[in-house]
Write a structure and sequence with these properties.
The chain is mainly α and 636 residues long. It contains 24 helices and 7 strands. The strands form 2 sheets. A 5-stranded mixed beta sheet has the order 2-1-3-7-4. Strands 5-6 form a two-stranded antiparallel sheet. β5 and β6 form a beta hairpin.
């Protein structure tokens, strides 16, 4: 109950805060009700994260400070008393109610939202959320301040979105945080409906939202702490703000676009590429100089804080990308050797096809029809809908390019296409889910223009059938994904039993929580279980940190032991192994010479996935908890 109320309060603060921001630069009175929400909600959401950050740096992550922040944002709700001008809707779709269809699709949307909230209401199990999205939030809340996490990729990284999780977590606990993370999809759904409504009837706008909210990649991360679909709100808002600024030369929309793009910049390094893409589309239009200057100012205002934070602690604002270029000296947590290993691993494991113009065109089709394992485009992909809509969307874009609404769609799509091109051609991870923030934008454009094509031909029923099949198929996938969580909600199963079932290594974590204290510290490579550890820990991933150097080629056991002791490590979680290099090999060396002793052993099942459960044919994985003996004594 308290968690739900906190979520509603946080949503009110975002809606009110966004309204105050829009009013501050003179857009509020000119915006219809729909765009007020479509622009104001993501703006308020991001500004909440911006406001939490300095409070965290100052050590003010307290319930009273979070409550005051939400109260300040909620004060902006009074602006909704001001009447809004009429919405700009294409004459061809004005007044087409289709009320039975509207009722049906609205019911389906409520079902979709209910399934997301059902999953989010259970204890969190998503791997990336356990590693840092939720894990870092819990660390900050328990410390009462934002702390620098000396770890590349998931520690020293922009976290504006994760900052919005702190007020719900501090005021309402874990369930409030997880429910809030899922509830943000509601804001994305509203945006999709508002921007589609400019060109299509209400029923189609709602159906388009349903399809885009049940894409495999959305289902995969929608109820978790993952930020891709949260960033999609910034992408969608910024792209259409760019389109309006380019069309009218209105500097207010240029500022809005910059603020929203900057929020993506402050939430993920990929936001830098998006901000560049949106800026390029903007400056190729009229009044490019002043609009461009205003846009860049907006990006800096909302995007710079985490880059200053990382620069202050590492000397590299986009740590560790510029480590070599800036010729930075070795840190305790990052060295030239570790950086070289990081870049080598990245080149091998994150990029499997050349960054060429040919593959720039082929990649989206390969993702859909024959994805490489690296792309992770099976369970985290776009599904078939974009490939099905592509030819008809293209025909609609070309045929109706002179329509005012389609002109905005062209400009917004240009932002998305340029973002994709920059992402692919500049060395980035080729895992498809990193492109997820742009999918709702592309989906809005494709849905609107495909509908225009079929509507003018009088063949909308074909599109109705395709939409019904797609939505039914994707909702079935979402239902299957939700079943393990529904089982927990209905069975009265304990939290520990549920986590044992969903996280194979959770028994190891449960033992540690029950047997170690705040005076101990564990070293672990169990990335997807960090959130659930309730004792101090050090994550010793070989490519992300140098505090304890555990690269595969590293075999200096004396140095390994000295680094462990310097970090206050008392226990290690490891798999049994022969003495040798790497983390498990050096841990085995410590056991072999008596420096460490096994105090617990576990056989854990191998999972196919959270949805499909355990693999009965795979032998169990074995883990040990090792205790270091005599902290001050040398190795034998």
């Amino acid at each position: 109950m308290i968690g739900g109320l906190v979520v509603l309060w946080t949503a009110a603060a975002c809606l009110g805060g966004g309204a105050l921001a829009l009013a501050a630069f003179g857009l509020w009175r000119d915006l219809p009700a729909g765009p007020r929400v479509a622009y104001g909600l993501p703006l308020g959401f991001g500004l909440l994260g911006i406001a939490v950050f300095p409070l965290g740096v100052a050590g003010l992550l307290t319930a009273s400070a979070m409550a005051a922040l939400l109260a300040a944002g909620s004060a902006g709700l009074w602006l909704w008393r001001q009447p809004a001008p009429a919405a700009k809707v294409a004459p061809a779709v004005r007044g087409r109610g289709d009320w039975p269809w509207i009722g049906l699709v609205s019911f389906l949307l409520l079902t979709i939202g209910g399934l997301y909230l059902l999953v989010a209401a259970q204890p969190p199990t998503d791997g990336d959320s356990m590693a840092y999205h939720f894990a870092n939030v819990r660390l900050f809340a328990e410390a009462g301040r934002v702390q620098f996490i000396p770890r590349a990729a998931d520690g020293a990284t922009p976290m504006t979105v994760q900052m919005t999780y702190l007020p719900p977590y501090i005021l309402g606990g874990e369930r409030a945080m997880t429910l809030w993370s899922a509830a943000t999809l509601g804001g994305l759904g509203i945006q999709i409906v508002v921007f589609l409504r400019r060109a299509v009837p209400v029923a189609w706008a709602l159906a388009g939202a349903g399809v885009l909210l049940t894409l495999p990649v959305t289902v995969y991360g929608g109820s978790s702490g993952q930020v891709e679909m949260k960033n999609a709100m910034f992408v969608l808002g910024a792209a259409f703000a760019v389109a309006e600024a380019a069309r009218d030369g209105d500097r207010r929309h240029a500022l809005l676009a910059g603020l929203l793009a900057g929020l993506f910049v402050g939430s993920k390094y990929l936001g830098l590429q998006f901000a560049a893409a949106a800026g390029l589309v903007l400056i190729l239009q009229r009044r490019w100089l002043t609009s461009g200057a205003v846009y860049v100012s907006g990006v800096i205002i909302t995007g710079i804080s985490w880059y200053i934070w990382n620069f202050a602690h590492t000397g590299d604002p986009v740590f560790p990308v510029l480590f070599d270029l800036l010729e930075l000296p070795d840190h305790a947590f990052w060295t030239a050797d570790v950086h070289a290993n990081f870049e080598e691993r990245f080149a091998i494991e994150e990029r499997r096809v050349p960054a060429s113009l040919v593959w720039l065109v082929l990649y989206p089709f390969r993702v859909v029809f024959d994805p490489l394992p690296l792309f992770e485009a099976g369970r985290t992909g776009p599904g078939p809908v974009f490939a099905l809509l592509l030819p008809f969307a293209f025909l609609g874009l070309v045929r109706f390019r002179k329509d005012a609404a389609v002109g905005d769609l062209w400009r917004a799509l240009a932002v998305g296409v340029l973002f994709y091109a920059l992402w692919f051609l500049i060395p980035s991870s080729q895992r498809f889910r990193h492109m997820a923030p742009v999918l709702p934008l592309v989906g809005v454009v494709f849905t609107a223009t495909a509908w225009l094509w079929f509507d003018r031909l009088g063949r909308v029923r074909i599109l109705v059938l395709a939409a019904a099949v797609t939505l039914g198929f994707q909702m079935a996938i979402q239902g299957g994904f939700s079943l393990p969580y529904l089982r927990h909600a209905l069975s009265g199963e304990s939290r520990d039993a549920f986590l044992d079932r969903m996280i194979p290594e959770y028994p190891v974590v449960r033992w540690i929580n029950g047997h170690l204290s705040a005076d101990d510290r564990g070293a672990t490579q169990l990335r997807h279980a960090l959130y659930h550890l309730r004792v101090p820990y050090l994550y010793v991933q070989p490519d992300f940190q140098a505090l304890v150097d555990v690269r595969a080629a590293t075999g200096d056991v004396d140095r390994f032991l000295a680094q462990l002791r310097a970090q206050g490590v008392t226990h290690l979680i490891a798999t049994p192994h022969e003495p040798g290099p790497g983390y498990t090999g050096m841990a085995a060396s410590l056991v072999a010479d008596g420096t460490a002793v096994a105090v617990a052993d576990f056989d854990t099942p191998v999972m196919i996935s959270r949805t499909l459960g355990r693999n009965p044919e795979a032998p169990p994985a074995r883990y040990q908890v090792l205790r270091l003996r005599d902290p001050g004594a040398p190795r034998p």
